[in-house]
User: Which sequence fits this backbone?
């Protein structure tokens, strides 16, 4: 996805007289242009929680794999798929792609069955789920040129999909030896800051290669289900890389797996603005047709992360041009 923008500067006009002042402030107006670039190659890493509470969720991913892969195959995209768990306790297994072969492609015999086996990563893993770092280890040295060699290809889009019902606990040894029942939560301040992990991920791609991170994780605590905890760290990673944030508590993963497949096939559904926008001022066009601001078949604005999300029939088609005009609320 390429992005272009132009803007007008802030202008403040003041006229001060003996009887008072008259000031007018004109907001900065921004126009950003995004291109929904077709994808030729995509490398998809599935990061799946293997703690005791995840058996049902793993089964739901496996059951809906066809909803994911159909969209990619229909788009004629050349794909690689690999699976890792969130368990980094065993240093010999940490970040290793699962199975043999550990990289699945459309040419792999029985790839559907093999994916369904791999994504059922088991439920005997560590209860300190380190999904963000598990992906980073899988995609960096020494794994990427060693045991995981062949997964990443030069020029391919990289997609990372987190599936977990706990928050991320990437600590890089900071919590080792602590006497606590839930050190990931009681000592959360000692975890690797997400901003540092975002910087690490940026180094996983080169040049014009695209990186998308999706988070299928626990919802807000007020909406909790079956003990799932909010996956706020995973969500922040997803927002930083223009991905989806979905609910691990959904009873059926059909819709979300289809959305992931659309993304992998080159149809992004989220676009990050350069600045925070005045929501009432936003106007959106796809190929010069203005789109409605509605959450079913149009677009919606996430004010917390200055992201425009598209839904349903409103998702821009491959190769389309998206324009977003808005008044800037504050710098991004």
Assistant:
């Amino acid at each position: 996805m390429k992005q272009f923008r132009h803007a007008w500067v802030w202008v403040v006009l003041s006229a001060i007289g003996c009887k008072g002042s008259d000031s007018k402030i004109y907001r900065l107006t921004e126009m950003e242009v995004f291109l929904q670039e077709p994808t030729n190659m995509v490398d998809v890493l599935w990061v799946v929680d293997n703690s005791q509470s995840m058996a049902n969720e793993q089964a739901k991913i496996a059951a809906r794999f066809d909803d994911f892969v159909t969209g990619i195959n229909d788009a004629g995209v050349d794909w690689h798929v690999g699976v890792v768990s969130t368990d980094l306790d065993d240093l010999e297994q940490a970040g290793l792609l699962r199975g043999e072969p550990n990289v699945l492609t459309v040419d792999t015999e029985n790839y559907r069955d093999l994916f369904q086996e791999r994504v059922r990563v088991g439920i005997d893993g560590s209860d300190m789920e380190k999904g963000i770092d598990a992906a980073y280890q899988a995609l960096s040295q020494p794994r990427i040129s060693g045991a995981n060699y062949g997964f990443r290809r030069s020029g391919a889009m990289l997609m990372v999909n987190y599936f977990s019902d706990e928050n991320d606990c990437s600590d890089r040894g900071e919590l080792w030896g602590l006497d606590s029942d839930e050190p990931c939560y009681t000592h959360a301040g000692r975890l690797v800051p997400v901003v540092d992990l975002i910087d690490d991920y940026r180094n996983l791609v080169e040049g014009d290669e695209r990186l998308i991170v999706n988070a299928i994780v626990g919802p807000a605590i007020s909406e909790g289900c079956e003990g799932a905890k909010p996956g706020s760290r995973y969500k922040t990673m997803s927002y930083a890389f223009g991905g989806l944030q979905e609910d691990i508590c959904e009873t059926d993963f059909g819709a979300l797996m289809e959305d992931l497949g659309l993304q992998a096939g080159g149809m992004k559904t989220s676009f990050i603005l350069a600045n925070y926008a005045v929501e009432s001022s936003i106007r959106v066009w796809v190929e010069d047709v203005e789109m409605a601001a509605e959450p079913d078949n149009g677009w919606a604005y996430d004010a917390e992360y200055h992201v425009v999300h598209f839904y349903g029939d409103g998702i821009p088609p491959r190769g389309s041009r998206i324009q977003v005009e808005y008044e800037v609320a504050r710098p991004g």
The radius of gyration is 22 Å. Residues 3-35+276-311+320-330 form one domain. The mean pLDDT is 89.
